[in-house]
Amino acid sequence: MLQAPGWLDSAEAMNKKYDRPSEADAEWADAIIFGTPTRFGSIASELKAYIDGLGGLWFAGKLNGKVGSVFGATSSKHGGNEATLLSIYGPMAHLGLIIVPLGYADPAMFKAGTPYGATHVSNQDTLIPDSDHLAVAQFQGRRVASVARLLRCPQRVTETA
User: Fold this and answer.
1) Does the residue 8 lie in any domain?
2) Is 96 a domain residue?
């Protein structure tokens, strides 16, 4: 079986550096931001398997009302970033997450990303995210945290605003 050059090495390095997300991570978090590379215009199988593994929390209603958002990347232009992000919205709705898109609520959105979530095109792994794409990702983080904070502590946020 042939693989993309360097893919296996990169995957192994990332798996050593970061712990695999668990069901417990989804349970304690106030917000969940799913990120995925686009694989043939769709969600990566690893993320799909993780989402499928949240069935116990879904059944118990433990994800209802948590904030959810998405980001993604492709290797090639028109590789399916928006389609992939939108395809994750369905499982997020089933899990009971409150979906937080980006819209065009920040000037950064007019330079990079999509209204559905932060994105990047790596041009076959030759480009890293530039300052415009990083600004969109930072905006997404702030927006999701703000909505999660409002939902978790509405009185405290209102009193200090």
Assistant:
1) no
2) yes
Candidates 81, 101, 80, 78; CA nearest to 89 is 101
Overall domain count for the chain: 1
Give me the CATH number covering residue 79: 3.40.50.360
Domain, as residue range, for 95: 29-151
pLDDT at residue number 156:
53
Report the alpha-carbon distance of residue 52 to residue 23 in Å, rounded: 10
Q: What is the C-alpha separation between 86 and 3, in angstroms, rounded? A: 27
Nearest Cα to Cα of residue 143 among 112, 98, 110: 98
Average pLDDT estimate for 14-41: 93
Question: Stretch 142-156: mean pLDDT, rounded?
Answer: 86
Task: Check residue 112 and report its DSSP letter.
Answer: S
Q: Per-residue pLDDT for 157 more than 90?
A: no
CA distance 90 to 96: 10
| Structure tokens belonging to residue 91 | 């499982």
* Model pTM score: 0.87
Backbone phi, psi, residue 3, to 5°: -125, 165
Pairing of strands 98-99, 119-121: unpaired
- Kindly tell me if the per-residue pLDDT of 71 is higher than 70: yes
pLDDT tops 90 at residue 161: no
Contacts of 70 (CB under 8 A, 6+ apart): 33, 34, 35, 36, 85, 88, 89, 92, 116, 117
